[in-house]
Amino acid sequence: MPANIQTKRIAWKLLLGALLLVAASSLQPVPPPDTASCLSVEEARLFQLINEYRKSKKLPAVPYSAALTKVAQLHVRNLQEYHNPQSKKCNMHSWYGKGAWKSCCYTSDHKNPTCMWDKPRELTSYQGNGYEISNYYSSSDGKVMNAAQALKQWKESAPHHAVIVNSGIWKGAPWKAMGLGISKNYAVVWFGNEPDSIRTFKICP
Predict the structure, then answer these.
(1) pTM of the predicted model, to two decimals?
(2) In what order do the strands lie in the sheet with 131-136?
(3) Long-range contacts from 169-175, C-beta under 8 angstroms, 24+ separation
(4) 57-85 burial, b if ≥16 CB within 10 A, otherwise e?
(5) How confident is the model at residue 31, as a pLDDT?
(6) Less crowded by CB within 10 Å, the N or C end of the chain?
(7) Is the pLDDT of residue 176 over 70?
(8) In this structure, what DSSP letter does residue 37 have?
(9) SS (H, E, C) 137-198
């Protein structure tokens, strides 16, 4: 084979290799899918109680969401560690400290709603907004939050109750996903209008 032909072939191979490397480096990594999460016994009980309550109001059950549960469980632990229940500035929709999230202060005037809405997109592959209800419970005899207590408190709070039963400003919200978290004194539930690809859970060992 003439030397000039062999040289051209080598040059074309090198050029092709370089083009493939450029193309590969330009591809954006695809985020891994959210893996099926597990729920504590009380979290699973809360999921059941909320849907039973909705059924009593002739409302459809809200499907489970692995992605929103991941957000809920991260947030409830974050609240347990950092939140001051007596705080008059940053309420329980706030995020604190360092993590995979952007820390933010959620105030009662709702001037920073993206502090809440964006968290599913920050932390999971779920692309819809997240809408959270949260509460705190502590007693003198050392009792902590459980599923029944959480739902009781939300039913007694008009704004939170409206989220659960799609009334008031939430009347048109087609809840298609729900995630839950309970940690000692805190409980949170996240709702979303878009369905999640993972809708089953197991009880944590």
Answers:
(1) 0.82
(2) 131-136, 186-192, 177-183
(3) 173/131, 175/62
(4) eeeeebbbbbbbbbbbbbbbebbbeebee
(5) 41
(6) C
(7) yes
(8) P
(9) CCCCCCCCCCHHHHHHHHHCCHHHHHHHCCCHHHCCCCCCEEEEEEECCEEEEEEECCCCCC
Nearest alpha-carbon partner for 89 in 76, 105, 110 = 105
pLDDT per residue over 98-124, tens digit each? 899 999 999 999 999 999 999 999 999
Question: Each residue of 29-80: pLDDT tens digit?
Answer: 334 445 557 999 999 999 999 999 999 999 999 999 999 999 999 999 999 9
CA-to-CA separations, 125 to 117, 129, 147, 187, in angstroms, rounded? 14, 12, 27, 23
d(CA 100, CA 25): 24
Calpha distance 141→132 (Å, rounded): 28
Q: 32 — alpha (psi -120 to 50), left (phi > 0) or beta?
A: beta
Closest CA to 106 of 117, 118, 97, 93: 93
State which H helix or E strand residue 60 sits in.
Answer: none
Mean pLDDT of 164-180: 97
Torsion over CA: 38, 41, 46, 52 (sign): positive
Mean pLDDT of the chain: 87
Size of the chain in residues: 205
